[in-house]
Amino acid sequence: xxxxxxxxxxxxxxxxxxxxxxxxxxxxxxxxxxxxxxxxxxxxxxxxxxxxxxxxxxxxxxxxxxxxxxxxxxxxxxxxxxxxxxxxxxxxxxxxxxxxxxxxxxxxxxxxxxxxxxxxxxxxx
Length: 125
Fold this sequence. Notes:
Distance between the termini: 35 Å
Number of strands: 8
C-alpha cells in the first residue's frame, strides 16, 4: 500500500456551506465533517470526497477566456452521467449555469454557484 492516499479535493468559495450543499444535492454525497468555514462531503459508501473552504477574497476563474492578470481555471471536476440532457437540466435546476462555449457534443460544461467550471459527460456508446 502506498504511504500516500488522496482523501479529498478542496475548492475555495465565498461560502463553503452553500457550495457544499450544491454538490451534496448534485452528487448525492453526505457530510463527513463540518466546521464554520469548511465542509467535507463524500460518497455514502466511502471514497474520495470534496471539501469546501470559505475564502473571503475568492475570485471565480475565467473559462474558456484567458486574459492576462485574471484568475485562471486551475482544475475542474468531470462527472460521468448516463443521460446528459436530463442531468444537465437537473444541474441547472440545482443552481448551476451553462457555459456559453460547449467544446464537445457528449460533454456539457457548467459553472457551479461559485463559478467553478465542471463537466457532465457520457461515455462513448
